[in-house]
């Protein structure tokens, strides 16, 4: 069943619009992977890059975890999904990964992120990020996540076209 992307409202409150844009970009990444085999999802771009669609899904699981659970929710001792040593680059290596493994981890982190965001009283919630050595608001995290997905969805456009010629945002 193909991924359906939500409509983005053109009028609404700040939080509603941020949520809608983030959900749209999450769905876009899933949509770019629709209909592909595990081997297709692991297909790497041109050398020397090892980037693949499955690597992007794994990376976004790490990003969701890092910003929502580790930063906003204060779960600082929570290890990364694919690296106990804190190496974010490990997620990109999807050579042995499967759709079911990567998507299960990513969707689990997205669900955690949704719960954490919904439970926050305001976009003005501010926490200290030990990793960045700075305070960060939920608003800044939401904007960063939209940026992160948008950037990587651009990569996904090229990766998908390289796999089977399918294009489109």
Radius of gyration in whole Å, from Cα? Answer: 16 Å
Percent of residues in beta strands?
under 5%
Report the uncertain regions. Answer: none
Characterize the largest beta sheet: strand count, sense, and whether it forms a barrel.
2 strands, antiparallel
What is the structural class?
mainly alpha
What is the helix content? Answer: 55-70%
Mean pLDDT: 94
**How far do the termini sit from each other?**
18 Å
- Shape, please? globular
The strands making up the biggest β-sheet line up spatially as 1-2
What is the count of DSSP helices, taking H or I runs of 4+ residues?
Answer: 5
Give me the count of strands: 2
Order of helices and strands: HHHHEEH
What does this structure look like?
- By secondary structure, this protein is mainly alpha-helical.
- Helix content is 55%, strand content 5%.
- The chain contains 5 helices and 2 strands; from the N terminus they run H-H-H-H-E-E-H.
- Strand 1 and strand 2 form a beta hairpin.
- The longest helix has 27 residues.
Provide tags for this entry.
single chain, 169 residues, mainly alpha, two-stranded antiparallel sheet
Topology overview:
Layout: H1 14-33, H2 38-42, H3 53-72, H4 99-119, E1 126-129, E2 134-137, H5 138-164
Antiparallel strand pairs: 1-2
Helix pairs in contact: 1-3, 1-5, 3-4, 3-5
Quick summary:
This protein is mainly alpha-helical. The chain has five helices and two strands; from the N terminus they run H-H-H-H-E-E-H.
């Amino acid at each position: 069943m193909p991924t359906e992307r939500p409509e983005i409202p053109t009028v609404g409150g700040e939080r509603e619009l941020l949520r809608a844009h983030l959900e749209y970009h999450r769905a876009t990444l899933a949509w770019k992977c629709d209909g592909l085999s595990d081997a297709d999802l692991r297909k790497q771009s041109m050398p020397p890059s090892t980037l693949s669609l499955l690597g992007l899904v794994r990376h976004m699981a790490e990003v969701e975890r890092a910003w929502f659970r580790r930063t906003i929710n204060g779960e600082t001792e929570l290890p990364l999904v694919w690296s106990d040593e804190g190496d974010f680059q490990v997620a990109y290596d999807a050579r042995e990964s499967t759709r079911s493994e990567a998507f299960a981890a990513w969707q689990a982190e997205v669900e955690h992120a949704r719960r954490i965001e919904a439970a926050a009283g305001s976009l003005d919630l501010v926490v200290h990020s030990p990793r960045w050595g700075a305070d960060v608001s939920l608003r800044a995290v939401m904007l960063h996540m939209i940026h992160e997905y948008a950037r990587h969805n651009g990569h996904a456009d090229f990766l998908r076209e390289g796999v089977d010629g399918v294009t489109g945002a």
